[in-house]
Design goal:
mainly beta, 47% strand
């Protein structure tokens, strides 16, 4: 069975993020304890935009839309912070963020539904490698339920790369994680070459129930993230989409590009 699916490949496009300095404390309450780095992803297809991410009364990401869904990592002070997505109705989320650590705030679900909300993924150890492709997987698709995710080259479906993933989890937060949070982990003897990679998402424990499958080119020297999102009107034929973003090296503009790919059979 074939599925008409879409993968969103985030490329360099969109608007620059707006930042403001605060006298005495530095940018966005930055103090001597150091800086964390935070961005916004729009994984809620029906939420009207553009969206902004506000921290300490400062807009750190702006002009985030379904067409330009991935913001720029912006500096915030380490320690307790509150992250507010505007103009959504989702309450702000408080989190203690660590210095020299990257985070992705994601708007998930659909307005008016119980699954509409904000989650924060920790993009730990995201440094790109000159020797290997690196990537992580974020689950921002609450309607899909628990899934297995496969990222692989070739025609043969391997064992799940990230098994048993649920909304709000990523490849570094599940039980027995395959990454920390990126795959392969830094210092691992495993090296992934540049080339075409398939990403397939199935119902957990049932490889024959394919929810999504597509392919994209990944390159050595970059760290990527695959963020699962529900479609605006999930159906058995197309329940999921995937936002593919470059995480490292950090990008200077919002990432955007909607790329339609022909689905392949498993």
């Amino acid at each position: 069975m074939k599925f008409p699916l879409t993968i969103r490949l985030a490329a360099l496009a969109g608007a620059m993020v707006t930042l403001a300095a605060c006298n005495g404390g530095g940018l966005n309450n930055i103090v001597a304890a150091g800086r964390a780095h935070v961005r916004l992803i729009d994984a809620s297809p029906n939420q009207p935009g553009p969206l902004s991410l506000v921290v300490a009364s400062t807009v750190i990401n702006s002009n985030i839309t379904a067409a330009t869904p991935v913001g720029v990592y912006a500096d915030v002070g380490s320690g307790p912070q509150t992250f507010l997505i505007q103009p959504s109705s989702v309450p702000a989320v408080a989190k203690n963020v660590a210095a020299s650590t990257f985070y992705t705030v994601a708007l998930i679900g659909e307005p008016g539904q119980p699954n509409f909300g904000e989650v924060i993924f920790q993009d730990t150890n995201s440094l790109q490698s000159p020797s290997t492709v690196r990537y992580k997987v974020n689950d921002a698709a609450p309607v899909a339920g628990t899934v297995d995710v496969y990222v692989y080259q070739g025609a043969t479906l391997p064992p799940p790369t990230v098994p048993g993933l649920t909304a709000g989890q990523d490849s570094g937060s599940i039980v027995n994680p395959p990454g920390n949070a990126y795959i392969p982990t830094l210092g691992s003897p495993t090296l992934l070459p540049s080339g075409a990679y398939n990403i397939t998402v199935t119902q957990a424990g049932n490889a024959s129930n394919v929810l999504f499958t597509a392919s994209a080119t990944l390159n050595v020297g970059f760290s990527y993230s695959f963020t699962l999102e529900d479609t605006a009107a999930p159906t058995p034929a197309a329940p999921l989409r995937v936002i593919l973003a470059i995480d490292q090296p950090s990008q200077g503009t919002n990432q955007a590009s909607l790329m339609s790919l022909v689905n392949h059979r498993i």
